[in-house]
Amino acid sequence: MALRKIVHIDEDKCNGCGVCVPSCAEGAIKIIDGKAKLIADNLCDGLGACLGDCPQDAIKIIERDAAEFDEEAVKEHLSKENTLKLHQVHEHPNHGGHGHGGCPGSRLRSFNQEKKADTMEVSQGDIEIKIKSQLTQWPVQLMLVPPTAPYFQGADLLVTADCVPFAYPNYHLELLKGKKVVIGCPKLDDVAFYAEKLTQILKMNDIKSVTVAFMEVPCCTGIVKAVEKAIADAGMDIPVYRVRIGIEGAATKL
């Protein structure tokens, strides 16, 4: 034991969102009983890579007596975690495991929407056209989705500003169909975090293409910049499609 810098998590502030989990390269943080926990002192290097990713400002670096950081213990821990994840994906590819260790709202889910018709006609005097959802995975929020989610492997990725589905009436059939999606608001959220998360998704999965859909308002171009930075940082050479949506619903391919 020695006095050193180490992560401290304020459980009163923590809401269990799990955003800090993938930010810790050592795997020292897990969601347990709905709260982020430092699972072992010797797995935390005290550098605080997870600090800026906490939307609740629940993580800080303090000094206290703690076991020394142990790189060999980290390697062993990560090896066990990776083996467990691979086993879970192999044995139960659609098992709906908790991507962040316990938060029900971020539980990984994959589902097949391809077997049904895209639209269904219902006659009640006038003909109503009902569009079938094209969403095939959960979660979709970029703050919550883990980069290692198995449904990203080999996918066409749609990155959507979160106002787009409300403004664009053909969102499901023209943009979402056949793609995996992540959403976020570049005005209200951390664009640097978005870029980092997207970089991880690109590096860890064989993404075939990226489509970014954004609103015409100036602040919304932040999500385009996040995608462009992620592709540059990941060193990827893949097709990128940009679709700008007007506030009155018109789509323009750029």
What key attributes describe this structure?
alpha/beta, Alpha-Beta Plaits, Corrinoid_activation_enz, two-stranded antiparallel sheet, 25% helix, 254 residues, elongated, 2 domains, Rossmann fold
Outline of the structure:
The protein has 254 residues and is an alpha/beta fold. It is built from 6 helices and 13 strands. Pfam families: Fer4_6.
Structural features, described:
With 254 residues, the chain is of the alpha/beta class. The protein is 25% helix and 26% strand. The strands form five sheets. The chain has a five-stranded mixed beta sheet. A two-stranded antiparallel sheet has the order 1-4. Helix 5 crosses helix 6. Residues 85-102 have low confidence and may be disordered. InterPro entries: 4Fe4S_Fe-S-bd, Corrinoid_activation_enz. Residues 5-34, 35-64 form the 4Fe-4S ferredoxin-type domain. It comes from Geosporobacter subterraneus DSM 17957. Pfam families: Fer4_6.
Could you tell me the strand content as a percent range? 25-35%
Task: Just name the CATH architecture of the largest domain.
Answer: 3-Layer(aba) Sandwich
Number of self-contained structural domains: 2
- The fold-level CATH name of the largest domain is Rossmann fold
- Assigned CATH class of the largest domain: Alpha Beta
Shape: elongated
Number of strands: 13
Protein name: 4Fe-4S binding domain-containing protein
Domain 4Fe-4S ferredoxin-type: 5-34, 35-64
Pfam families: Fer4_6
InterPro entries: 4Fe4S_Fe-S-bd (IPR017896), Corrinoid_activation_enz (IPR052911)
Layout of secondary structure:
Layout lengths: L1 E8 L10 H4 L5 E4 L2 E4 L20 E8 L4 H21 L17 E2 L8 E6 L1 E6 L5 E2 L17 E6 L2 H4 L3 H6 L3 E5 L6 H14 L4 E7 L5 H14 L5 E6 L5 E3 L1
Parallel strand pairs: 9-10, 9-11, 11-12
Antiparallel strand pairs: 1-4, 2-3, 5-8, 6-7, 12-13
Helix pairs in contact: 5-6
Pfam family, one: Fer4_6
Organism: Geosporobacter subterraneus DSM 17957
Protein name: 4Fe-4S binding domain-containing protein
